[in-house]
Amino acid sequence: MSPQPRPSRFLGAGIGILSVAAAVAVGHLVAAFTGPGSSPFLAVGDTVIRFSPQFLTEFAKTTFGTADKPVLLGGMAVVILAAAVVAGLAGRRRVGRGVTVVVALGLLGLATVVTAPTFRALDLVAPLVSLVVGPAVFLGLHRLARRSSDVEPHGLSRRAALLGGMAAVAVVAVASGVGGLPAGSGLAESRARMTDRLARARLAERAPAIPAGADFAELGTPPFLTSNADFYRIDVALRVPELRAEDWSLRIHGMVDREVTLTVDDLLARPLVERTVTMTCVSNPIGGDLVSTATFTGIDLRDLLREVGVRPGAEQIFATSVDGWTAGTPTDVVMEPARGAMLALGMNGEALPPEHGYPVRMLVPGLYGFVSATKWLVDLELTTFDARRAYWLERGWAQRAPIKTQSRIDFPRGFQTVPPGRVRCAGIAWSQPVGVGGVEVRMDGGPWRPATLTTEVSGRTWRMWTVDFDLAPGSHTVQVRATDANGAVQTEQRTDPIPDGASGQPATIFTVG
Ligand SMILES: Nc1nc2c(c(=O)[nH]1)N[C@H]1C(S)=C(S)[C@@H](COP(=O)(O)O)O[C@H]1N2
Ligand SMILES: [Mo]
């Protein structure tokens, strides 16, 4: 009997990497058919997000912005790669050790899928397939490697068999990973149908017309309406939930007189309203761009809740998305007659884009998104504040979070150099739902001067401002503050976004020269 030579380090590591890659990729491919929630790779990522401490989430958001998810998945790939190399090296002398590491990785994937908030029995298939594929490939390649190193006349062809086997695994892994990316979910067709239905529906309430001079885009402000492509996006979903309108339903239960379950047809049979709303994220720093405006189409949430019958003592509307994210909205705010809270199906003349909550999201003008704007909404429970604690409340953010009166300087930009003479400063301000009453600007600590404002479209939306200064060459500092329609001035007091939104007046240093 020939001795059992161990594969070279290089070969050992290669076998480890290939078997783990095959396991991950095949699991991902199977998940494309059984449900995106069951991809072991994505489930591990979701779990990392779910259990990340607050500071880390904030760090990721501020450092990588919306690239935070690709960065996370890339980081995970590196860690898994390292574990695969460890498995490969450990398995050189004793195959069993390598297999143990591969199985441990598989069990990790299985555990994260099973503990996901959206877990269903069918989700077991993908991680179980991964769990089998990993060790099987590992053992198979080891067998080929052993044989190919036997000193026999057939050595060359056995070597060829090993290389062929490794290449085949690599091809299968890449093909599965790529194949698993776009799951054929019929989402595009579903959205096209919805866009069509919304376009043909009769509106019971129209959004106000946007007048020609609603923005100062030529001076550097954003356009009044943000396009869907440019609308800021914030959520904790690693993969955008793929939920067809045809499969959607919303359960309204808890402290209500009549529990109901509604379909999209039920919603479209109700009077449709169209409202233009400026949305803001509580994480938006002073001067930040997590603020956007769109015209939403949907149904009035207050009307719906009045029909369902809200019981006294139901302090919050606890909303859950299909991927298990939650938000608690104070009931009293939603039930204010002029508030305009809604369940939205359309955004700027089309079905909600998948990343903004298709098919249905909630929206409450004047409340930060984390307490009001649940995307991919599937459940509303009327309950007390004590009974349920929402996702961000659990992580140190506030229970009640009205949007603070805020303003932003869009021109000049920080440290920009502008030509001498007349400098035309411009920016935006918002104070939902009452609206912006005025904006004042001062230069280099001088007197506050009233700015020119665009025509108000609605108290639920932002307003743009501009003011001219004649400036001498040199460094200057411009500062702005908004006043709401009731005369309350935006505070000078600086606070961080956590727990209920940043406050303070923006200031920009720039150069005239
Ligand atoms: N399902 C779900 N809905 C969500 C979130 C989320 O993480 N998951 N984030 C909320 C937050 S913090 C904000 S600011 C808004 C952002 O909505 P947008 O991405 O459409 O701008 O969505 C809210 N709705
Ligand atoms: Mo947010």
From TrEMBL:
It holds the Pfam family Oxidored_molyb. InterPro entries: Ig_E-set, Mopterin_OxRdtase_euk, OxRdtase_Mopterin-bd_dom, OxRdtase_Mopterin-bd_sf. The keyword Transmembrane applies. It comes from the Bacteria. The chain crosses the membrane at residues 12-33, 71-91, 98-118, 124-141, 161-181. Keywords: Membrane, Transmembrane, Transmembrane helix. Residues 489-513 are annotated as: Disordered. Residues 238-390 form the Oxidoreductase molybdopterin-binding domain. This is Molybdopterin-dependent oxidoreductase. It comes from Pseudonocardia xishanensis.
